[in-house]
Request: fold
Amino acid sequence: MKAVLNYLKRIAKQINKTIIFMALLFTYSIICIYHLFVKVKSQRWYKYNKKITLEYTKHLW
Reply:
């Protein structure tokens, strides 16, 4: 009986480690994707803002 309980405890520990690893990996991937989208959005905004300022600074003659 003790051997069975010991075996089940080892399996439960391994499952818990796997679940924690997957949760951390999922969280890290969400953070990376968020930073990627923020960087792309800021680059687009910078290009758009630069384009507008160039249009306003063009001379009419």
Q: What stands out?
A: DSSP finds one helix and no strands in the chain.
